[in-house]
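Bumping my old thread because nobody answered last time. Still need a sequence for this structure:
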């Protein structure tokens, strides 16, 4: 088995895991990045403080500036100041324009804030005079990343849980869809719908569950066939038993009325024998149909078997000529003496029954295709072309057969086919151009090799 379902599930889990880790990493990084900046309204507030401080400073009213700074610090519970950054180089050092432009005492409001620092950073707003700066310790209410712990907790718990639930739902649906269809088909089959099948419902799916559906279909087909066969056998057997039972009832009625029944005893005995043979053959046929046994446990010489059958046939049909063309020996390995004896006897008996008195039944055996081909030709009425395969069905008898031999009940050839097939061979029928029926039987030399 190619384990397609295993690889599908492994692929789904692997892909889902990769997507989960990538999503957590991506969202975590993106969230932290976006939460590391001061909110736009807070940036504008700090810039406004800087403009106010610059305006007060430029007005020359230092006391007003001091009062405003004091009020701001009290209101925001922070520290704020206006400072001058006149840097004087020493030891003949020279300050570059880049340094003078980029030098800052605090952080710009547009800069990224390190969320993992415990202390808040000092923010800076530079005046029109680059040497003057408004500094303020970032108020706690403006610090970014307030909900970062909660968001990280969601990314580590809620997101993985959601992804895993989605993966479970996908896998569950992938597994349960065919199982539900199989359950539905099983229920339908239990309710008597013997034609229900599952594989077609699964479309192009090709995995272990599809193989299970195919196995179910084969089981349903075989079980349905067996059930229908048993029903047909029971119905046919019941039909065939009515005639001998009716004759026996008539004989018993005569006995009850005091009529001499001595001449009826042979008929009763014959009808009982007919019923016994009919029941035994039907049970044997049902066993072969249900069990499909492989009868390949013996080694036998087909010539010895044929000689014994032909001796019985010549004794039973003294007014027939039975012409046999047989080799010196024909050993069969892995076969069944009992099954072949009954099958070949039924075929030869059938040929003798339909060959008129004084006619000839020709039998030949030749080696062919790792086996032996046995042919039995009669001089009977033959079988219509469209019924050549139907004669091997239980209780089937053509109109010609019923007219020619009204006492049969149509189980001989059905048994013969199943017994020959159980030994690894086959049997077919065809009409002869000269009239009559030709039965071809092929038997393997060694059934265990087939």
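Sorry it took so long. Here it is:
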């Amino acid at each position: 088995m190619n384990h397609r379902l295993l690889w599908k599930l492994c692929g789904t889990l692997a892909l889902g895991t990769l997507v989960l880790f990538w999503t957590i990493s991506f969202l975590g990084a993106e969230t932290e990045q976006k939460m590391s900046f001061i909110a736009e309204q807070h940036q504008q507030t700090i810039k406004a403080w800087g403009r106010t401080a610059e305006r007060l400073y430029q007005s020359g009213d230092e006391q007003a500036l001091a009062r405003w700074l004091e009020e701001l610090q009290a209101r925001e519970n922070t520290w704020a100041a206006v400072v001058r950054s006149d840097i004087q180089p020493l030891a003949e050092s020279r300050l570059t324009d880049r340094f003078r432009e980029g030098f800052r005492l605090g952080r710009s409001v547009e800069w990224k804030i390190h969320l993992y620092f415990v202390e808040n950073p000092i923010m800076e707003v530079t005046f029109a005079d680059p040497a003057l700066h408004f500094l303020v310790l970032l108020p706690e209410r403006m610090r970014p990343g307030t909900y970062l712990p909660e968001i990280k907790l969601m990314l580590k718990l809620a997101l993985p849980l959601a992804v895993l639930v989605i993966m479970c739902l996908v896998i569950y649906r992938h597994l349960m869809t065919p199982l539900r269809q199989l359950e539905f088909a099983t229920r339908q089959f239990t309710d008597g719908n013997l034609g229900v099948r599952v594989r077609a419902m699964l479309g192009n799916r090709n995995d272990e569950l599809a193989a299970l559906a195919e196995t179910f279909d084969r089981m349903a087909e075989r079980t349905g066939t067996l059930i229908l066969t048993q029903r047909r056998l029971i119905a046919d057997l019941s039909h065939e038993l009515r005639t001998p039972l009716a004759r026996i009832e008539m004989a018993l009625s005569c006995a009850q009325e005091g009529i001499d029944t001595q001449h009826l005893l042979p008929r009763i005995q014959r009808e009982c024998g007919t019923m016994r043979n009919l029941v035994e053959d039907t049970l044997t046929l049902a066993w072969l149909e249900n069990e499909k046994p492989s009868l390949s446990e013996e080694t036998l010489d087909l010539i010895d078997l044929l000689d014994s059958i032909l001796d019985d046939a010549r004794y039973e049909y003294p007014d027939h000529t039975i012409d046999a063309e047989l080799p010196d020996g024909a050993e069969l390995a892995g076969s069944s003496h009992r099954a072949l004896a009954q099958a070949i006897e039924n075929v030869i008996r059938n040929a003798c029954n339909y060959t008129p008195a004084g006619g000839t039944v020709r039998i030949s055996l030749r080696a062919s295709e790792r086996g032996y081909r046995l042919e039995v030709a009669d001089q009977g009425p033959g079988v219509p072309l469209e019924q050549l395969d139907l004669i091997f069905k239980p209780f089937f008898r053509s109109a010609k057969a019923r007219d020619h031999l009204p006492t049969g009940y149509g189980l001989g050839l059905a048994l013969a086919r199943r017994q020959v097939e159980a030994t690894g061979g086959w049997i077919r029928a065809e009409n002869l151009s000269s009239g009559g029926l030709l039965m071809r039987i092929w038997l393997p030399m060694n059934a265990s090799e087939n």
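Residues 4-35+148-177 form one domain. Let me know if any region looks off to you.
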